[in-house]
Amino acid sequence: MAENQCIEYKQSWRDEYLKWICGFANAQGGKIFIGIDDNGVVAGVDDYKRLMDDIPNKAVNHLGLVVDVNLHQSEGKHYIEIIVPVSSVPIAYHGVYHYRSGSTKQELKGVALQNLLLNKIGKKWEDMPVEGAFHKDLNETSIQTFIGKAIEKDRIPSSAANLDPELLLKNLNLVTEQGQLTNAAVLLFGKNLAKVTVTASLKIGRFGRSSNDLLFQDIIETNIFDMPDKVMDTLKAKYLIRPISYKGLERMEPLEYPEPALREAILNAIIHKDYSSTYIFLRVYDDRLHIWNPGNLPEELSIEELKKNHSSYPRNRNIANVFFKAGYIESWGRGTNKIIEACNEAGRPEPIIEEEQGGFSITFLKDIYTEEFLRKQNLQVRQINALLYIKKYGSINNAQYQELAKVSKRTATRDLQELTERGLIQKSGTTGKGTSYIFHL
Fold first, then answer.
1. What CATH number corresponds to the domain at position 303?
2. Which of 112, 114, 135, 289 maximizes the CB count within 10 A of its CB?
């Protein structure tokens, strides 16, 4: 079995591996095997008798943690299994907190450490009180908009319209037991989000051919309940076009990206963002739209599982609850499925969903013919260049392919045939010298 978030192999024991025990205890727990190399091959450990005493004693003395230490044997070689339980309290090694993430060990500092400490006591960053924030600091219009939408969706009783706003916030878990507004309350309905974090805004940028070519930008600075509508309004007004087509006599002007999918992705980024981190970035290019929010997926989910039926694990449960009650989202974990379905229905490629740079991203494609996407399709570089040539000039013939790729006619024919069989291009024109290749319609 390969190393993963719950398994670590070490060929021999060093006391510094107490840090790994600390990291597992602060995360999901796990197992450390001593006497097995990185490939999972049993190398054996000679001083196993001493280690069977030393390891559990040092775990208790340095970490205050009881671990199970088991001795195993394979083909005459001994190795040790250390089973580390999940700790209900934060564990430090010599004053430093460690955390197991993926197959790595990380030292926690600053906000990451604060989040660990909060999680271990059953709290989240969104639950923390905001000093000096009062009900007058909230936007009453936003609150009333929420109430109206939630009543319309039948997710709060109609009597809530006459409820004292402070009691309403309490019922939504947006007020502490001491009556203080939480981070979530100010983020959702606040007039000044800087009281909570200066990075609550969403940045939109229009780029040229690369991420270094910023043409113009906007910063959406508002409370996050109003943010989805303002982001969509800004995109429609300045960043996206509406290609005109006709269905019979009816004039059709849909956005270049399916609006339901785009809105769902924006909601997803706002609701699941790690608000103790940086901004949400929405980048619009000629051929794609990329939205990224800080905060990786919960440990219970993977990218592949997101595309199947899965449970919902909101990072900010109280923020998610407000958007749910307002009818903006479901509570069934179907956000990514709805995004993919909306793209399919609009005849667009399936969006690229990734974890990157400590966050989560969705890339919408106008078509599949982007260099980034094509490089993932196991094509030859010359084939990718030919597809990009078609995208620029509309078509390519065998002679042009030969010249572009610097290959023989036989190789050009074989390459073009492969692209045709894969459904990426199709023949156009008369057979022979009159044959050219265009994108598959």
1. 3.30.565.60
2. 289
Give the containing element (helix H, strand E) for 329: none
Amino acid occupying residue 2: A
Q: Long-range contacts for 91-97 (Cβ within 8 Å, ≥24 apart)?
A: 91/22, 91/25, 91/26, 91/63, 91/64, 91/65, 92/22, 92/63, 93/18, 93/19, 93/22, 93/62, 93/63, 94/62, 96/19, 97/22, 97/26
* 229 inside domain: yes
**pLDDT for the residue numbered 345:** 86
DSSP alpha helix (H) spans, 379-438? 381-393, 398-405, 409-421
Report pLDDT for 334: 81
Written as one letter, the residue type at 309 is N
Residue 133 and residue 74 share a domain: no
351 by DSSP, 3-state: which?
coil
Same domain, yes or no: 104 and 74 = yes
- Residue 1 inside a domain? The answer is no
Residue 289 has pLDDT above 70, yes or no: yes
- Most confidently predicted of 136-150, 242-256, 303-317, 347-361: 136-150
Domain of 181?
Answer: 124-367
What's the pLDDT score for residue 253? 55
- Does residue 202 sit in the same domain as residue 141? yes
Domain final residue pick, 100, 122, 144: 122
Per-residue pLDDT tens over the stretch 151-166: 999 999 999 888 888 8
Distance from C-alpha of 329 to C-alpha of 271, rounded to nearest angstrom: 10
Are residues 102 and 159 located together in one domain of the fold?
no
Examine the pLDDT at 246 and tell me if it is beyond 70.
no
Count how many domains the chain has.
Answer: 3
Residues 6+ apart with CB under 8 A from 354: 303, 360, 361, 363
User: What integer pLDDT is reported at residue 247 of this predicted model?
Assistant: 52
Question: Where on the phi/psi map is residue 23: left (φ > 0), alpha (ψ -120 to 50), or beta?
Answer: alpha
The pLDDT, as a whole number, for residue 243 is: 55
For residue 138, what is the DSSP state? Answer: B
- The CATH number of the domain where 112 resides is what? 3.30.950.30
Beta bridge partners of 101: 104
91 pLDDT band, cuts 50/70/90, is very high
pTM of the model: 0.70
